[in-house]
Amino acid sequence: MSIGPIGHTLLGLLESGPRHGYDLKRAFDEKFGQDRPLHYGQVYSTMSRLLKNGLVEVDGVEPGGGPERKRYAITDAGVTDVERWLATPEKPEPYLQSTLYTKVVLALLTRRDAADILDAQRSEHLRLMRVLTDRKRKGDLADQLICDHALFHLEADLRWLELTAARLDKLAEAVKAK
């Protein structure tokens, strides 16, 4: 029963006490979804799955102007599931097959200028790094940590772009030899 990171996050938010779906969405978006807020449908479909799996229960139902508003509470099984999820390390993603690498090799195979592709990508990375650095400067601690994570990944990409540019002649020979 895989409920995914969003399901686990919503479960974790319920540990502080029962909440309605719209409260969960607001808390998620505020803490984790600044760049990609949840859709209400995603919240309610996830809550339905968590309910079906016994990880949450309906703590109360209130009539409203529209449909009834359910208040969800985490179950003991839900708490155990969150604990297990938090204790399980994430699988590192080595990015062994990147789209950028594919573009560089295809450019070489089709006699296009791979250096132009690398230059354009470098410019795009630097642009995004400026945006993230500005956001980090203006943000709270959580936003600063999120931006740092993204900036470190972009810096690693930039190192790869520089290394690839320096080895482009050798890569062109290797690609054409295959």
TrEMBL record:
Pfam families: PadR. InterPro entries: Tscrpt_reg_PadR_N, WH-like_DNA-bd_sf, WH_DNA-bd_sf. Residues 10-81 form the Transcription regulator PadR N-terminal domain. This is PadR family transcriptional regulator.
